[in-house]
Structure formats: C-alpha cells, structure tokens
Amino acid sequence: MVHFFTFNHNNIEYYFIWDIESGSLFNVSNVAFLCAKNLYGTLSDRESDLFNKTPKDDIKFFSNEFKLLEQDGCLNSKQSVKSFKKNLNYVKALCLHICHDCNLNCDYCFAGGGKYNSPKDYMTFDVGKHAIDFLIENSGNIKNIEVDFFGGEPLMNFDVVKKITDYAKITAKNSNKNIYFTLTTNCLLLNEDKANYLNEEMDNVVLSIDGRKETHNAVRHSLNNKNAFDIILNNAKYFVKIRGNRKYYVRSTFTNKNLDFSNDVEFLRKEGFSQISVEPVVLPKNHKLAIQEKHIEKINNEYDNLANSYIQKREEGNWYNFFHFMIDLEKGPCISKRLTGCGAGVEYLAVSPSGDLYPCHQFVGKEKFKIGNVFDGINKSEIRESFANNTVLIKENCKNCPAKYFCGGGCASNSYNFTGSISNTYDIGCKMLVKRFENSLAISAIEKIASNS
Amino acid sequence: MKQINIIAKNTFDKNHKIGCNECQASCQSACKTSCTVGNQSCVFQDVAVNKKESDRA
C-alpha cells in the first residue's frame, strides 16, 4: 500500500510517497508524484487533468523507475506479517498511582480531579513494596524494567515515592535488573529539594504545564493559590536548569479553547524548555473542552504551522524537540513493538493506591478491567489475553492507515471510551495522528535534504 | 532536484525483528494519552532521536 501527501515549506511544495508496508519514504517531483499516484493511488480531478498533459516519455520513464523500486521491495510492497500475539510471559513496567489526590483541579482531568471518581487515597510503602516485588517476580528474563510514579499528584506523597525508589533500586540490583524511574508532576510542590531529588533519581520527569499563562489558567485551577502558574513555571524552569542534557518533557494539553496551540509551544520554547509535548485533550464529545470533528481542519492547519516553525527554528539554531514530531526512520522499534503499541494490559500495568492491578492508568477505577492485585497477583488472565490479542493487525480501521506501524493501533482506553471496545479506534485521534505522522515524515525529509545539500 | 529522492528505504527491514521487549514501554514516555511507538528507538540502536545531533552519545 502506498500513501501520498504533500507539505508546503517556505513556499516550496514537497511531494512525498510513503510505502506503508516497507517503511520507505520518497521525495519526488510533481510529475513523478502524479505518475506514482496514477499507478498506486487515485488521482483527483485536478491531478488527472495535469497527468493527462504529462508527456508519454515521462510516464514511461517513471513507470520503469517505480517497477525497479517495486522489485527492490520498497514500493507497493505487501504486508509481511499477517497475525501476531503479544507475549504474555512477563510484565516489565508498572505505573504506580502514588496518590489519588491532587492540588490542582483541571477541567479536563480524565481522573476526575486526580481522585479517579473515588475517595482520596494514598499508596502506602507496603503496597509500593509489594508492587515492586510483583514487577520483579513477573519480569521473567527481561532485563530492563520500569516504574512510573503517577497520580493525582505524586509529590503529595513524596516520602512514599522516596521509600519505594530506595527499595526498588536495591531489589532490582539484587535481581540483576536495570530499573528506570519516571515521575509526572504538575510542579506546584516541586521545590529545590524535591527537584534535586528527582534530578538525581528519575530517568525521566514529565512536567505538566499548559503553555501560556492564559491557556493554563483557563483550565488548570489551583485549589488555594492564585499565583500557581508563576510558581509552576519557576519550579519547572529550575528543574530544567539543573537537568542539563538528561531526559525530561514539559507536557501540555490543548483543548478546543486553544486551537492555536503552536503559540503555547512557542511560549514554552522561549521559556527555555527544549523537550516539549503538547497533546490533544481526549474527552467525551459533549464536554465543553472536547476536540470535535469540526475542529480537525483547524487543528491540522495548526500542526502545519507548527511543523514549519519547527523546521525554521531548528535550522536557525533554536533547536527543540516536539514529542509528536519525533520519528526514527532508520533505527526505530522492531516489528513486534510496531504491531502491539503501548503494551497496556500485557507488559505494562497500573497499580491503584490500594494495590489493585489494571491494564493501564486510564483504566484504573473501572471495575471490569481490574485484573488482580499486587498481593495475590493476576487473577483475571482473560482480560490480559484480550489485550495481548489487541494488535494493530486486528483493527479494521487500521488496515490501510499510513501510520499503523508508527501508532501501533492507538490507545485501548480511548477506543473503549468512544466505542465500548478496546479493539476499535478513536477516530478523531486517528485524524490528528495521521497529520502529525505526515508532518514528522516531511520534517525528517526536509532536514535530511538540507543536511545533504 | 532529483526526480525521485530516496529519503528512507525498507526501514522496517533494517529494524531488529527479534522482539526482545527490552525497550521502553511507550506509555511510560511523555504523553499517556496519545502514545505512539514510531518515535522510539530500538534499545540496541538508541540514537536518542530527541537530542540534538551534537549532544548524542
């Protein structure tokens, strides 16, 4: 299968051909684009008119060139893997819900103000200890294991974070495992002591800020501090200052109230953040902040604006990384990973404050998805089995998608929330993802062309 | 410009196929709502795609 798209940068129209099954990308002339689309796709009326004016010798030349690429297996290639099931023999990553409580109240919070629609709850060290033991015992031969401290706001239960980290490091070392820690925080409690600790102990730190002050304050409300944004921004900036070249992300959510989100990205860049992730909110369609079908065109235009600015800024020496424009065309993940996506419910599980196990953080509190607990282990293997079978290959909507081996089939929770099944797709999310994917390919190509010229 | 410029060719063939499962679980990354896998590098070939070329180890 072949996908065709264009990208305009500095008033130059770039024509791209993406071979979905082999992962091959070609930047071609307008004429070559039309000839390829005539062979492997469907020309629009306007393109048909142009194609019909193309000299016969050119058409013959490109047909021969494309046949050679086909023989090389990089154009119009066929699907090589027809079925796949995720290995159920191990768990390698846990998301620990350190507390179901939060010192912010965000209008779009999927966790209902951090409490997951249940009373406030804080994980004890005993639960955390059993979670680490569960992870080590169930990680089989996997050497690299991961723990993600999540909430609510995990810094509200910071002593337990520290105790679990200490215990996990010792236990992992004794078991000959490499353990990697991530913590996600809204930065409100991120004073210098905590920042120094996280910088020392965490392999990745995710700092939640929604960009410009007005964007942030419109949806993220402090419970008791009117100047929360300034505190959050200053704390995040201090952390990034001491972080140096080590891994972090400043992570924002955009809603239908800031569809000009490239301005939030630019604000964050100017504030000194170089690792930026700005994500579309996922909410029921009747929610006042929800992304709806009618917003897609504007959002996709905004991704184009952002992509153009991104290329320009990086070229000028103002380098930064935008999470959703990252793509590794040469050394990306293996086919196994590409088919199975995030691994939720199989290799990656979430632990509630009381120790219950769920397929991922998004499912916590949904009783029918509870698969066990850290004390007794997994007792509903049929749920895990359903996640193991839930690969991109079984999803009807993914069959012809150009991004399928980069997305891995999408978020099971989003699919469940919008369709009632983990095996479908969240269509609005897919439309934005395909746009980001095309932009990622275009950015990668344009930067490569520039570096070779 | 060249009429057909190959930017990347048969990239899936170049990837490790062993499925060693030692790489990062993708939802442990930045987003937790709209994760992808294609922006990750294979753990054996980690070129730190999120870093400036000059800063890559």
List the helices and strands and how they pair.
The complex is a heterodimer of chains A (453) and B (57).
Chain A: E1 2-9, E2 12-19, E3 24-28, H1 30-40, H2 45-52, H3 56-71, E4 93-97, E5 99-100, E6 104-106, E7 121-122, H4 125-138, E8 144-150, H5 158-174, E9 178-185, H6 192-201, E10 204-208, H7 213-219, E11 220-222, H8 228-243, E12 248-254, H9 262-270, E13 275-280, H10 296-315, E14 321-322, H11 335-340, E15 348-351, E16 356-358, E17 372-373, E18 377-378, H12 381-388, H13 404-407, H14 412-419, H15 427-452
Parallel strand pairs in A: 4-8, 4-15, 8-9, 9-10, 10-12, 12-13, 13-14
Antiparallel strand pairs in A: 1-2, 2-3, 5-7, 6-11, 15-16, 16-17, 17-18
Helix pairs in contact in A: 1-2, 1-3, 4-5, 6-8, 10-15
Chain B: E1 4-8, H1 11-14
Verbal overview:
The complex is a heterodimer of chains A (453) and B (57). With 453 residues, chain A is of the alpha/beta class. In chain A, 40% of the residues lie in helices and 18% in strands. In chain A, helix 5 links the parallel strand 8 and strand 9 (178-185). Helix content of chain B is 7%, strand content 9%. Chain B is extended, with a radius of gyration of 14 Å. Chain B has one helix at 11-14; one strand spanning 4-8. The longest helix of chain B is centred in the N-terminal third of the chain and has 4 residues, at 11-14. Chain B has 1 helix and 1 strand; from the N terminus they run E-H. Chain B has 57 residues and is largely without helices or strands.
Which stretches of chain A are low in confidence, meaning pLDDT under 50 for 5 or more residues running? Answer: none
Strand tally of chain A, please?
Answer: 18
Straight-line N-to-C gap of chain B: 33 Å
Query: Given the C-alpha coordinates, what overall shape of chain A results?
Result: globular
Largest sheet of chain A: 11 strands, mixed
Over the alpha carbons, how many angstroms does the gyration radius of chain B reach?
A: 14 Å
Q: Show the largest interface.
A: A-B, 88 and 51 residues
Helical percentage of chain B: under 10%
Give the ordered list of helices and strands of chain B. EH
Radius of gyration of chain A, in angstroms, nearest whole number:
23 Å
Mean pLDDT of chain A: 94
Oligomer: heterodimer
Low-confidence blocks of residues of chain B: none
Count of helices of chain B?
1
Structural class of chain A: alpha/beta
Mean pLDDT over all positions of chain B: 71
Distance between the termini of chain A: 30 Å
User: What percent of residues of chain B are in strands?
Assistant: 5-15%
